Amino acid sequence: MRRPVLAGNWKMNKTIAEAVEFTRTIRSGLNSVQGADRVLCPPFTALAAVKELLSGTDIALGAQNMYWEEKGAYTGEVSPGMLKELCQYVIVGHSERRAYFGETDAGVNRKVKAALAHGLLPIVCVGETEAQYDTGQTEIVVSRQVHDCLEGLTIEQVAGLVIAYEPVWAIGTGKAATVDGAGAVISRTIRGTVAEFFGETPAQAVRVQYGGSVTPANIAEFMAHPDIDGALVGGASLKADFVDLVRIAAGTKGG
Fold this sequence. Notes:
Layout: E1 5-9, H1 16-31, E2 37-41, H2 47-54, E3 60-63, H3 80-83, E4 89-92, H4 95-101, H5 105-117, E5 121-126, H6 130-134, H7 138-150, H8 155-159, E6 162-165, H9 179-198, H10 200-205, E7 207-210, H11 219-223, E8 230-233, H12 242-252
Parallel strand pairs: 1-2, 1-8, 2-3, 3-4, 4-5, 5-6, 6-7
């Protein structure tokens, strides 16, 4: 069985002091949840402080982005070598990075390879925009993203990844995809594309999250789908009831 993974993406929220206070609030509850991997993804500025607070727990830490080069004249960027001292996970290719900062599938591919080379586990984000969804392009767009972002990886690397399916029209809008809709994209398009290019074994091994307006009220529905292995949670991860969301998700998957 694939082990569920629940990741909280705090985005550009919380100062160091706020991150410390919030982590102390949720740490015990999150650490008590069994049967699922739990990942906190604070801003770069708070990574070290949150890492210290997570010491002695099995809660993992993730970064929200990274650059693919190891070092050099890249003002404002953070390398995988810098992150590996702090994190276990890193989010790459989030739709906000694509939309606001011009990131491409080719760039995401380079980030995935760099993360893996440094022992970081990428959470690779894919998903269609509202316009693409409305014009029936979901399968074409998501399949292309999966292929291009994973191109050149080994079967073993793909099998160990986390992919996050985040329909852009559902992120931060309160308009979640239906379970059947998200499940179909994950089952047919994401796992189908992985199977086509890497084989059925990694297609069934890779963990695929859903993300987009996930809340404690709807998480059980998504986790009940056999092909959804967790969630990449945005706004709901900034509140203390994120613990409830994680507990419900783990319980639904039998944890």
